[in-house]
Each structure stands twice: as structure tokens, then as C-alpha cells.
Design goal:
Layout: H1 15-23, H2 29-41
Length: 44
């Protein structure tokens, strides 16, 4: 069933799968704050 080198948390969450999904989820909170700040100040 499980691969021997699979990284999981104590609760069984697959760490690599979470990282893969996060990579495709869009902007981070800090990226959005930076983008909004740049738009507000007129910087690019």
C-alpha cells in the first residue's frame, strides 16, 4: 500500500501531496498584500 519513503505526519497526512496542491493553489496571503500595496502606491 504505502511507499516506504513517503513523508506523512502523525495523523497520516501526505506531506508531498499537500505541497503539490499548494503549488497549484494561487497567490499566497503575502503575495496578495504586496500586490495590493503596489497597486495602491502606483509601483510595479
Amino acid at each position: 500500500m504505502d511507499q516506504p519513503n513517503k513523508k506523512v505526519t502523525k495523523t497520516g497526512t501526505d506531506i508531498d501531496e499537500v505541497k503539490r496542491q499548494n503549488a497549484h493553489s494561487g497567490l499566497t496571503y503575502n503575495q496578495v498584500k504586496q500586490m495590493l500595496g503596489e497597486q495602491y502606491t502606483g509601483k510595479k
